[in-house]
UniProtKB/TrEMBL annotation:
One of its GO terms (molecular function) is phosphorelay response regulator activity. Signal peptide: none annotated. The modification 4-aspartylphosphate is found at D52. This is Transcriptional regulatory protein KdpE. Residues 3-116 form the Response regulatory domain.
């Protein structure tokens, strides 16, 4: 059974989410502030977190950073903040998706399901490939990346983006295709997601992120992975 941690200081939203999630056979924990969220995440190990940014004790971005220090669990931000820089800030801190309030319950649940799917382990026979570059090695079966003898910690979304690219070495993967494969069919215009997550992959895997050797941008078209 999938366990969801809902973090929001608005009782009405928490109640609506708890009712709808439990009706769909999710286990649900709820927190009304950041400190409680971090404590519940450590104690109960949720499979996905739905997080509001406007919490009474700390900003939601601080909570994301605190979570990312200890877990790769998918984080779905639910916020009234509509500005593009707010979205980029949350994604850059490690969130996997961003839904603005007011929201439709069906859309939120669809995005939550997509986030959970991205975190699921690869089935047998789907990923028995090793991709090796001069700086790092990607083990698609084990869902691991090694750089200089050390495991590189990737979030589920970072991993999914990397996986799509390394499975097509040397080929241009279009922006819409990447968005559809990593986030889902309703994300055709969210190109800021790609910019943020490509920057994260470059920081973690490129020797010189400002001058990438492996993750190449084709302006206005998409991205390419080069060994």
């Amino acid at each position: 059974m999938t366990r969801v941690l809902v973090v929001d200081d608005e009782p009405g939203i928490v109640r609506a989410l708890v009712i709808n999630l439990r009706a769909r056979a999710y286990e649900v924990d709820a927190a009304h502030d950041g400190a409680t969220a971090l404590r519940l995440a450590a104690a109960h190990r949720p499979d996905v977190i739905v997080l509001d940014l406007g919490l009474p004790d700390m900003d939601g971005v601080e909570v994301i950073r605190g979570l990312r220090g200890r877990t790769r669990v998918p984080i779905l931000v639910l916020s009234a903040r509509h500005a593009s820089d707010e979205k980029v800030g949350a994604l850059d801190a490690g969130a996997d998706d961003y839904v603005t309030k007011p929201f439709g319950m069906d859309e939120l649940l669809a995005r939550l399901r997509a986030a959970v799917r991205r975190a699921e382990p690869v089935g047998a026979g789907e990923g028995d490939v090793i991709v090796q570059t001069e700086g790092f090695t990607v083990d698609l079966a084990a869902k691991k990346v090694d750089r200089g003898g050390r495991d590189v910690r990737l979030t589920p979304t970072e991993w999914h983006l990397l996986e799509v690219l390394v499975r097509s070495p040397g080929r241009l993967v279009g922006q819409k295709q990447l968005l559809k494969e990593v986030w889902g069919p309703s994300y055709g215009t969210e190109t800021n997601y790609l910019r943020v997550y490509m920057a994260q992959l470059r920081r973690k895997l490129e020797a010189d992120p400002a001058h990438p050797r492996h993750f190449i941008t084709e302006p206005g078209m998409g991205y390419r992975f080069e060994k």
